[in-house]
Write a structure and sequence with these properties.
Layout lengths: L1 E2 L4 E8 L3 H12 L4 E5 L5 H6 L1 H16 L19 H25 L2 E5 L1 E4 L4 E6 L2 E12 L3 E3 L12 E2 L1 H4 L8 E5 L3 H12 L3 E6 L10 H13 L3 E4 L2 E8 L2 E7 L5 E6 L1 E4 L3 E3 L6 H4 L22 E3 L10 H15 L13 E3 L5 E5 L2 H6 L4 E7 L4 H5 L5 E8 L5 E8 L2 H13 L4 H6 L9 H11 L14
Parallel strand pairs: 1-7, 2-3, 2-7, 3-4, 7-18, 9-16, 10-11, 10-16, 11-12
Antiparallel strand pairs: 5-6, 6-7, 8-17, 13-14, 14-15, 19-20, 20-23, 21-22, 22-23
Helix pairs in contact: 1-9, 3-4, 3-6
């Protein structure tokens, strides 16, 4: 290793080139700052290469494949013969999507004057980092820094992924064949998303979740339809059940489990996917040498501008407490960049939407009914079912509903939640409504195009007010 004697000076160094890091770097470049963006792997980070994009590509392909069985009732007659899903061909498609997006990030960084350095960064002090780049070691001196190193899958002590029999989410998305049977440890959003996708492709899926329900961080009223669909897909779901040990035996994996009845059983599957959670990547970047503090779990606490306890060093994304969401990281990155450039910017919104790409999709923003009541609101709610929506029926996507949560006194919208087809896109209207402090009347008075799924918002809002057109109004008119 050759140690550089002279430090390269830059206004800002950004450590990590994921959705938060590259967004921050590009925004800084737009604002006239000199920027060095350090990424040890590839621009786009885990989200682009091993997470968000590849998983959604698999979920989409699995969904299209699964639909083939129901096309005949829509008048589509397929040729006789077996229809097969080729995982290896899908891998080529996935890589083409990732490659196109990665090239786009490369070009945007270049166009905005961002210097990209490939290597592993470590703080040497509170104004210098060292970067290992192959056999060399380069030093950079900065005025401000942004930490955007993301997170990695959490692996419990009783199981160690080997990439062949015991998988993490990255391994699962690199499979060349669909396993005959797949056990999933953890019934959170990653486990349920990938589990349902592999079930649609023909795998026999068993999910083991320690909590008393799958998607334990999501309101029970929003997960019931997902549970029903999982059963229809032939998935086995073991809730209130813990995995005590995992062993590989003759090309199969055995799970020793403790059930909710306090009995011990053994489950045998071809492969096991571990999706218990994620941990921040803060342990190997020399934070103590920069004086940056973390909590006992390794998270960096920041203020609304992204500042750490060291005023000129910022942190964004999965290394900070809060939901590990790419869009949250991107927004934090833009805010930190603007604050560094002297603009009045702040991450001060509670309205961070979430999307779960299960079958059906779940999406929401703001408070649930239970959360609103716990905060002291007098709540009025209404839901409109997809089965009463013309577009949903015409496209055979009738499972689900839209729900609005309203403050009964002020009529202010407090939360909007969806279970159903295209919820991931429809939730954008809900986010905008909350950001604009809209009342339920604002939503009800807005003309929505027909026939579209977006009309579920209109009808849910009208149902709260007591004058929905396409369902029977059961509640009294909201005064």
């Amino acid at each position: 290793m050759v140690v550089g004697e002279v430090a390269v000076e830059t206004d800002v160094v950004v450590i990590g080139g994921g959705p938060g890091g590259y967004a921050a770097a590009i925004r800084l470049g737009q604002l006239g700052k000199s920027v060095v963006l350090v990424e040890k792997d590839q621009l786009g980070g885990v989200c682009l290469h091993r997470g968000c994009i590849p998983s959604k590509a698999l979920i989409h392909s699995a969904g299209e494949y699964h639909k083939l069985a129901s096309l005949e009732k829509l008048g589509i007659q397929l040729p006789k013969g077996d229809v097969a899903f080729q995982m290896s061909t899908w891998q080529t498609w996935k890589e083409s999507v990732v490659h196109q997006l990665k090239n786009g990030v490369d070009q945007l960084c270049q166009a905005n004057g961002v210097t990209v350095v490939k290597g592993a960064a470590t703080f040497l002090s509170n104004d210098r980092i060292g970067v290992e780049t192959g056999g060399d070691f380069e030093t950079y001196k900065f005025r401000q820094a942004i930490i955007a190193t993301g997170s990695r899958p959490f692996t419990p002590p009783f199981v160690k992924p080997d990439g062949v029999h015991i998988l993490d989410s990255t391994d699962a998305l690199n499979l060349q064949e669909v396993p005959q049977s797949l056990g999933i440890i953890g019934g959170g959003y990653i486990g349920m998303e990938l589990g349902m996708a592999f079930a649609k492709l023909g795998a026999k899926v068993t999910i083991v979740e320690a909590a008393d329900k799958v998607l334990p961080q999501t309101a029970a009223s929003l997960t019931q339809e997902v549970w029903k669909q999982a059963k229809k897909l032939g998935m086995t779901i073991r809730t209130g059940t813990k995995v005590e040990s995992v062993s590989v035996e003759q090309a199969h994996v055995s799970l020793d489990i403790l059930t909710h009845l306090n009995t011990r059983e053994q489950v045998s599957v071809e492969k096991v996917l571990v999706t218990i959670g994620r941990v921040p990547n803060t342990g190997e970047i020399g934070l103590s040498q920069a004086g940056v503090q973390t909590d006992e779990r390794g998270y960096i606490h920041v203020d609304s501008t992204g500042r750490t306890n060291v005023a000129h060093i910022y942190a964004i994304g999965d290394v900070t407490p809060g939901p590990a969401l790419a869009h949250r990281a991107s927004k934090q990155g833009v805010v930190a960049a603007e604050v560094i450039a002297g603009l009045p910017s702040s991450f001060d919104t509670p309205y961070v939407p979430y999307v779960i790409f299960t079958e059906p999709q779940i999406a929401g923003v703001g408070l649930t009914k239970e959360e609103a009541e716990q905060q002291g609101y007098r709540v009025k709610t209404a839901a409109f079912p997809y089965r009463a929506n013309g577009r949903a029926l015409a496209t055979d996507e009738k499972e689900g509903f839209a729900e609005v949560i309203v403050d009964e006194q002020s009529h202010l919208l407090l939360g909007l939640h969806l279970v159903g087809a295209d919820a991931s896109n429809l939730i954008g209207e809900g986010v905008l409504a909350l950001e604009l402090a809209a009342r339920v009347e604002d939503l009800a008075l807005t003309i929505h195009p027909h026939p579209t799924l977006s009309e579920v918002w209109l009808e849910a809002a009208e149902a709260v007010l007591g004058h929905a057109i396409h369902i029977v109004n059961k509640a009294k008119v909201l005064q």
